[in-house]
Design brief:
Elements (H helix, E strand, L loop, with lengths): L5 H27 L4 H17 L3 H29 L12
Helix pairs in contact: 1-3, 2-3
Length: about 100
Amino acid sequence: MDIHFKGLLIGIATFLIIGLFHPVVVKAEYYWGTKSWWLFLLMGIAGLIAALLIADIFWSALCGVFAFSSFWSIKEIFEQEERVKKGWFPRNPKKKE
C-alpha cells in the first residue's frame, strides 16, 4: 500500500496560508487603511498566473490557494475597517482619517 502525502501537505499549507492572511489584513488596515486593497489584488493576480503556469499540481494548488486568499482579503480589508470603527480592533492614532 502506497501512502501519498501531497493532499495532506496541501491541506496543512492551505491552513497556514489562510491563517497568515488574518494578521496581514489587520496590519495592512492599521497602517494603510483600505487603500491597501490593490496590493491584495496584485498578489492575487500574481498567484493566479503562477497557478496557471506551474505544471506541478502541488505548487500550482498552493499558488491557487494563495491567489484566492489574496482576493478574499480585499473583502476582509473593508470589513476590518468596520471592525475598527466598532472598537473591536485598535485604531492607528498616527493614521490620517
